[in-house]
Amino acid sequence: MTNLFADMAYTVPKPTDYSTEALERAFTECVSACLTDRDSVHNDADLKAFRDRWMARKNGILAQFNDLWLKEAPKEAKRIAGFWVNALKARISEIVESAKESVAARQFAGTLSGDDHAIPGRNQGWYAHGYQAGVTIDNPIFISEVVDISLPGVRRPIGAEHPVMRTWREIVAVFEKLGYSVAEGPVVETDYYNFEALNFPPNHPARDTQDTLFIAGQQSKPQRERLLLRTHTSPVQIRTMEKMRPPLRIVIPGTVHRNDPPDASHSPMFHQIEGLAVDTNITFGDLKGTLDHAMKALFGSSVKTHFRPSFFPFTEPSAELYVTCFICGGSGRRGAEPCRPCKQTGWIEVLGCGMVDPNVFEFVKDNGYDPRKVSGFAFGMGVDRLALLKYGVDDIQLFFQGDVRFLQQFG
Question: What pLDDT score does 127 carry?
């Protein structure tokens, strides 16, 4: 194959003057020579010879510039010589790339001028786009301007639900299927909705700053108007009963805050889901049946439930719900080792619940919640704790640190 550039006269000059004016003049001459060479490129063979002449690593013109201008430059001139050599490399690379695109466009335009039935990709997006753009030999376009919609796209990495959010949605979905509606409310609450309307006495320990995060500068306000970060999603129960008359069935997911130092099992911010059902003649049996169904839907039909008496200011009677350990199956052991999640008891506490205290209904009595006519039950569970148990995670802080290596396990 004949080298089209063998007879071309341009050779790299050896500089004797390292002034800015001299180096800039040599830069301009070199770029001009490269542009002239590019005009002789018409096909792939020309392109290869052109690229080798200018960019070959050992004896290309750019390599010669690096040897003659930079390596042999005196110490005081190396900085300015290096600047112009780098500028020249960038410009020559642009010219070679434009030659490559021009050859591709010529080949593409030549294909379009042939028999339509012989065109690969006939009726595909790139053909139609190129044809409508008026591509011809005399009016080529760069191939980079054409979109080939028949090619596979660049696949974006697909994320996955955070384990806490996944658990959140699974719980909500169970109760939605039971006919519950989702209710939401503000995170910054008043003392009235967070404590008073839920039957918390004025001297209850939860109202102390050691347990609750109060907004600063509230001392001059009456206690019921003081702002705080809600410690549970229960205030939404009161707000919803103020707006809606019975019967009522709602599930309330959301973030809550408590003054807890972060450790493996505590966080000052966590997620909670509560539920409330109010109607005539609701009994504790309705509560047990609802939660038994929900736990089986979440953890499997073989799970058994167990209620133990407890105390909460806003429910009476109150209970804590335990389920058979879904890790060890209730045996308390995992093979030869003890089961740590259930502490070898075979039972795991998952939530608190109870019948709504009549004193709570007194705060919304005027909206149809006369405690002599209606009854209801409520329950609340920590989403983060359930996610810990479900996925076998031993540190709640891992959910909030955003470590991709940890989160990738749930993809």
Answer: 38
User: Is the CB of residue 346 less than 8 Å from the CB of residue 332?
Assistant: yes
Residue with tokens 């479900």: 390
Residue with tokens 């907004």: 215
**Residues in contact with 380: Cβ distance below 8 Å, sequence separation at least 6, in sequence order:** 232, 233, 234, 272, 273, 274, 275, 351, 352, 353
Q: What is the DSSP letter of 223?
A: G
Contact 10, 33 (CB under 8 A): yes
Structure tokens at 187: 């995170």
∠ CA 213-396-292, rounded to 5°: 95
Please tell me the distance from the alpha carbon of residue 106 to that of residue 141, in angstroms, as a whole number.
8
Q: What is the DSSP letter of 69?
A: I
**Residue 58, both tokens:** 């050992």
Closest CA to 272 of 407, 378, 346: 378
Q: The tokens of 320 are what? A: 């804590």
Residue 150's closest CA among 176, 178, 122? 122
- Cα angle for residues 230, 291, 288 (degrees, 5° grid): 115
- Whether the bond between 247 and the residue before it is cis, its omega within 30 degrees of 0, is yes
Q: Contact, 353 vs 380, CB < 8 A?
A: yes
For residue range 202-231, list pLDDT tens digits in order: 887 777 767 889 999 888 899 889 999 999
> pLDDT tens-digit profile of 299-323?
888 889 999 999 999 999 999 999 9
CA distances from 157 to 154, 325, 400, 406, 411 (A): 10, 36, 22, 17, 11
What are the C-alpha distances in Å from 36 to residues 25, 50, 63, 331? 17, 11, 19, 85
**Sign of torsion, CA 295 297 299 300?**
positive
Residue pLDDT, tens place only, 85-131 = 888 888 888 888 888 888 888 777 665 554 444 444 444 343 334 44
Assigned token pair, 195: 């404590």
Mean predicted confidence (pLDDT) in 247-266? 92
E strand segments, 328-391: 333-334, 337-338, 347-356, 375-382
Q: What is the pLDDT of residue 233?
A: 95
Coil vs helix vs strand at 391? helix
SS3 of 389, please? helix
Strand partners of residue 181: 250
* Length reported for the chain: 411
Q: Give the residue from 297, 275, 295, 294 showing the smallest Cα distance to 355.
A: 275
| Alpha-carbon gap, residue 364 to 379, rounded angstroms | 19
